[in-house]
Amino acid sequence: MDEKPRSNTEVGRADVFTAVNNYLLLIFCGSCVLSSMYIQQLFLAVGQYRSGIGVSALVGIMLPLGLVARRFGGGLRRQLCVQRPRLARSVYVVLATLAVVVVVDQIYLINQQFMPVPEDYLRSVSELKPEGAWAFAVTFVGLCLLVPAAEEMVFRGFVQRIFARNMGGVLAFVLAGIVFGAVHLNPHLLVSIGFFGIYLGFVFYASGNLSYTVMAHAVFNTIALLQLTFTDVLEASEPPFYLQDVRMFVVAVVLLVYLLVRIKRGGPETEPPRDAGAP
Fold first, then answer.
1. d(CA 151, CA 137)
2. Has residue 173 been placed in a domain?
3. What is the structure's pLDDT at 182?
4. Is 30 inside a domain boundary?
């Protein structure tokens, strides 16, 4: 006798990307991002910008996307391709992200020659600088844990996979990365953050596991937070030490290329949920 499905979510609703119109999903993802920005502005208006970072990511993005994804076969983890990461690949991803930091900061430095950083942006970043252990902990949870999880859910877990269903996988992660950069709404960050988004898209494309992109995003944001904590953004006159010698940049690029090959070699670790009605 054939085994019966364990729940009705396994019958006819296996894949959120098949069951729901992809254009509607994109609109829904966009509305989640906008709601997150709106919540963050509300916290900013009451002088709680630091707390708003984590709350906006959790309430504006993670909860609504999670509620949608978990209604389909396999639940949230299967729909968003979340699996326990492998140790070796995790090391490659962390090292590759460190190399990406060097490349991204170099792009940002070059971009400043053509598009100076707005003073209001520098002031807003400076105000985020944590003073004391509690402020650092709140900022770390929001910026380095909740924001990476939320943004990877929407940009890689949903947007990139929607694009991949309608175009080639490479074009999908490049386009999703550009959208990721554009959504940050700072023209002087478009190229550098867009590059970082493309890198994250490649990691997801190569591994098929959202855990690695969340990990990479968390490492990247943690380094940014440490730089913010121990430097003065408004008075910084010299670039970071790793940008003061071109040889370090060259080493970072070579290392990044090698690590991307190693990450790709492992192949995808997850299989997408079956289409609804598939045998």
1. 20
2. yes
3. 92
4. no
How many of the other CB atoms lie within 10 Å of CB of 195? 18
Q: By residue range, what is the domain housing residue 162?
A: 81-265
CB count within 10 Å of CB 128 equals 17
Of 6, 26, 23, residue with least CA distance to 73: 6
Angle between helix 87-114 and helix 246-265 axes, rounded to 10 deg:
140
Give the residue ranges of DSSP H helices in 86-118: 87-114
Q: Which residue has the tokens 């023209």?
A: 187
CA triple 170-85-204, angle to 5 deg: 10
pTM: 0.90
Q: What is the mean pLDDT of the chain?
A: 87
Specify the higher pLDDT residue, 51 or 116: 51
Distances (CA, A) of 267 to 18, 57, 160, 197, 242: 24, 30, 18, 20, 32
Structure tokens, 220:
């990247």
* Tally of domains within the chain: 1
Q: Is the pLDDT of residue 7 over 80?
A: no
Q: Among residues 274, 238, 262, which one has the least CA distance to residue 86?
A: 262
Asked whether the predicted pLDDT for residue 109 surpasses 60, the reply is: yes
Q: Is 56 contained in some domain?
A: no
Checking if the pLDDT of 8 tops 50, the result is no
Please answer whether residues 136 and 47 qualify as being in contact, where contact means their C-beta atoms are separated by less than 8 angstroms.
no
Q: Indicate whether 136 pLDDT > 50.
A: yes
Domain presence at residue 71: no
Q: Pick the closest to residue 41 from 52, 30, 57, 31 (CA basis).
A: 52
Look at residue 10 in the predicted model and tell me its pLDDT. 40
